[in-house]
Amino acid sequence: MAICMWTTYNYLSLDKDFISFIKGVYNHQDKGSILLLDSKNIPKLKKRRVYKRNTEKKSLKMELIINKFVDNNIQNSQYMYFIKNNDNKQFYYDEEYVRFYTLDEIKKLVDKYYIVKYNYGDFKFSEYDEKASERFIIVLERK
Fold this sequence. Notes:
The protein has 2 helices and 8 strands, in the order E-H-E-E-E-E-E-H-E-E. The protein has 2 domains: 2-44 and 98-142, Rossmann fold (3-Layer(aba) Sandwich); 48-97, S-adenosyl-L-methionine-dependent methyltransferases (Single Sheet). The chain is mainly β and 143 residues long. The protein has helices spanning 15-26, 103-110, and strands at residues 2-4, 34-40, 48-57, 60-71, 74-85, 88-99, 114-120, 135-142.
């Protein structure tokens, strides 16, 4: 069994990169082995979310502002770090993109290697609902 948790495969935003990942796992499994893919259910997320986090320890203060927005099947996340260590102020910026793959897209991309056995909307094995489920969990079986 192989497990890919917490929206990690979604960083593979190009079909060719996703297929390369699938082939790599396939080559290390026997027939009938399982590959579990888990991600947030991006279609359920609000289209725009902005929030901040503050951390303070001794002379170090950090404010993190997070801006996330969803456009079609892509979530863009921007992270702005404001750090103050005594009188030294620093700013860092980071950005990331994740792609949401639909069940039909995954079926098509893994077709040579796996079949979709199950898909769930949470860790309690609830039925997946694109509009209501918190997670998008797919169980693939190696051909």
